[in-house]
Structures are given as structure tokens and as C-alpha cells.
Amino acid sequence: MSLEGKIASQGKAEARAFVTNNPLEKPPFENYILVTQSSNPEISHLLYYAKGIITEVGGLMSHLAVVSREIKIPCIIACEKSYSELKTGYNIKIDATSKLNSRVGIEYDI
Asked: Which CATH number characterizes residue 45's domain?
């Protein structure tokens, strides 16, 4: 299965999804791709352990996009339905090696 979004930070990542908007929720495993509905500075501490980020809302200058470039992990923004369609534990593959703001597909398996 796949979704589509825009590249906000380049790179490749493959890990299980951790879907949350709750800054107090702890990831159930070490390596994960953070899936969130919007850019929220309160979840920043979760970014430093993430292999990648996917968000439904945001732009190239959103908090998640900027921080992901700083810590050099891939970030996909404007990925419609990602928060509702992806579930914690799904295997996700991000190949965000094209230029910034270009559209890219995200592959996932249940």
C-alpha cells in the first residue's frame, strides 16, 4: 500500500510506525518513523529517536520540517490521510532522495 506527500527533508528510512499527537505517549519500540497529524513543538523530544517523520499538515518551514533537516532524518509533509490510515506497528519505507518539495510515495505494509 502507499500514500503520497512532499519531501521536507531528504533521506531514506525504514522502520515501524509510531502514530501519535500526544507528547506524553512513549514509543513502544526503539526504531520508529513518527507519524503525526500536525507540526507541534511539544513532540520535539520524540524526533531525536525517530528514523523519519510523516505528517499530514505542514510546509517546508514548519517546525517538524526544520528540525528534521537539522537532525538529518527524512521528513514527509502534506501526506493526506497518513494519520488516519497508518497505525502504530506498520512497516514503513521512505525514499525521499529527490529535491525538496517534490512529491514522493510512501510504502507501507500491515
From this structure: 3.50.30.10
pLDDT tens-place string over residues 43-70: 988 988 999 999 999 899 998 999 999 9
> Which positions are catalytic?
63
How many degrees, rounded to 5, is the angle at CA 15 between CA 94 and CA 35? 70
pTM over the 0.90 mark: yes
Q: How many domains are contained in the chain?
A: 1
Distances (CA, A) of 85 to 90, 100, 104: 10, 24, 17
Domain range for 23 is 2-109
| Residue given cell 524526533 in the structure block | 47
Residue 40 CA to residue 30 CA, distance in Å, equals 21
Contact 10, 104 (CB under 8 A): no
